[in-house]
Design a protein that fits this description.
Blueprint lengths: L9 H13 L17 H8 L4 H42 L17 H8 L20 H7 L17 E4 L4 E8 L1 E2 L2 E2 L6 E4 L9 E5 L20 E5 L3 E13 L14 E8 L4 E14 L3
Parallel strand pairs: 2-5, 6-9
Antiparallel strand pairs: 1-2, 1-7, 3-4, 5-6, 7-8, 8-10, 9-10
């Protein structure tokens, strides 16, 4: 087998080396920065310099996240105490209420049936007692001397609504008068609020409002009312029987639902749609009757 000729490249390498040594140095357009000798700590600091801002931002975000979580916990705790804590304390501080009237009242019961169920809970109107003539006076003389009986003037407080009963909602609640404060109507706690200045029952548009989800939730089931359902409003000596006429949702600025009317109606208002709207139920007067035993 014929071996290939070996090539001695020593001569070529030496010639190339001599050529490179004899050649002039290349011309550079700019000088390089001289090398710096730094410690490992300084080198790491220089290499990570671009990430410093990201580290500060991460720290701010972490602290903000912790503050946000703490704020949520504080808000949730305040919400629980303010709503459920108040309800618990109110139930503990007040004596047990009597059995609700709707437990003995059949659906669609009339006002007469409601009178029968309430029984002794109704106030009694005492009859007017006229002064008897003395025995020693003659009938004609007694007739002459007997003073005329003045027409009694009704007590204004006896005309203010005191109680509301809605069997469909299982509601039997006292009514407290509320007022307009700084352009905002007050809302009664653990009771139905009667808007001061609106019509008295049987006289026009009587406006009631109540909470739907807190502090008694007296109107929490207002959305269960339907057309024709009965509502009873009591003053000191009269019960007014209403029937639901309209149900609607309005925006908070639609205050025309509280405007006076010639027809005797009641307007019941509560919050709905996460407190962005108002649920409004209007009922017209059907009849009225004096409370008696």
């Amino acid at each position: 087998m014929v071996q290939p000729p070996t090539i001695d490249s020593t001569h070529d390498d030496l010639g190339l080396l001599q050529e490179l040594l004899a050649a002039p140095p290349p011309v550079r357009s700019s000088l390089h920065r001289p090398a710096q000798l730094r410690s490992l700590k300084e080198e790491r600091k220089t290499a990570l310099q671009g990430y410093r801002f990201r580290g500060v931002l991460d720290a701010i975000l972490v602290r903000s996240e912790r503050l946000l979580i703490l704020g949520v916990i504080v808000f949730f705790g305040y919400w629980v105490v303010n709503i459920y804590g108040r309800d618990w304390w109110y139930a503990r501080s007040n004596p047990a209420a009597p059995a609700p009237v709707w437990e003995a009242l059949a659906p669609g019961a009339s006002a007469a049936e409601l009178d029968q169920v309430l029984g002794q809970q109704l106030p009694v109107i005492a009859p007017a007692i006229s002064a008897a003539a003395p025995d020693y006076l003659e009938p004609a003389q007694a007739f002459i001397l007997q003073p005329a009986t003045p027409t009694p003037t009704p007590d204004p407080m006896s005309l203010v609504p005191k109680r509301i009963i809605v069997p469909t909602m299982q509601l039997d609640s006292p009514i407290h008068e509320v007022f307009l404060r700084d352009g905002i109507w007050e809302v009664a706690d653990y009771a139905v609020g009667y808007h001061h200045g609106t019509a008295l029952p049987g006289k026009g548009n009587t406006v009631f409002a109540g909470h739907a989800g807190i502090r008694g939730s007296v109107f929490g089931r207002l959305n269960e009312l339907q057309l024709g359902h009965d509502i009873y409003v009591e003053t000191a000596d009269t019960r007014y029987h209403y029937q639901v006429q309209t149900i609607q949702q309005v925006w908070p600025n639609q205050v025309e639902v509280m405007y006076p009317t010639e027809q005797a109606i009641i307007t019941m208002i509560t919050c709905t749609a996460w407190d962005t709207q108002r649920l409004v139920v209007k009922a017209r007067l059907i009849d009225q009757a004096a409370l008696s035993s």
